[in-house]
Amino acid sequence: MLSKLRPALVSFVVLTLICGVVYPVIVTSIAQIAFPNQANGSIITVTQENGTTIDVGSALIGQTFTKPQYLIGRPQGTSQLSPVSEEQKALIQERVAWWRALDPENSGAIPSDLVTASGSGVDPNISPEAAEYQVDRIARVRNISAKTVREIIARYTTGKLLGLWGESGVNVLKVNLALDGRIQ
Length: 184
Hints:
Elements (H helix, E strand, L loop, with lengths): L1 H33 L1 H4 L3 E5 L5 E6 L27 H17 L22 E2 L1 H15 L3 H10 L1 E2 L10 E3 H8 L5
Antiparallel strand pairs: 1-2, 3-5, 4-5
């Protein structure tokens, strides 16, 4: 019995050390060296008027903004609804109505990413088209020029990876912090 139990226990201890200690230390070390900002959560820190700094969020996790003076991101939360289900259609219509009530002066087509949640439910970015849809409202409410709003949006718009993969995106949190003058 002991002769069969001993190899199992040794294997258990060895694999626990390899998979539970050695591998995580190696992967964490590589991440800290190669991608320190992302490995530490891409935290956005701002300096307050009194000189202290505070963490205001992550550039990788979306936050909910609903006030008209802010760039508003994708709906948060996930749903496993079929894109053609009646429930999904009703949810989209509800969101379209919300956008129309928020900005009745804007009769343009609402970009789909403003009325559909992302797969993760916490997407920090919206499409440049979704940001452009909101420019006039933000400028009007803040009493600044649309050109100023567009310049801020352009500053926090990223392109495709190597110009080939993915989609361009606008980081909602960074734009809103810049609109408030909290980051440059």
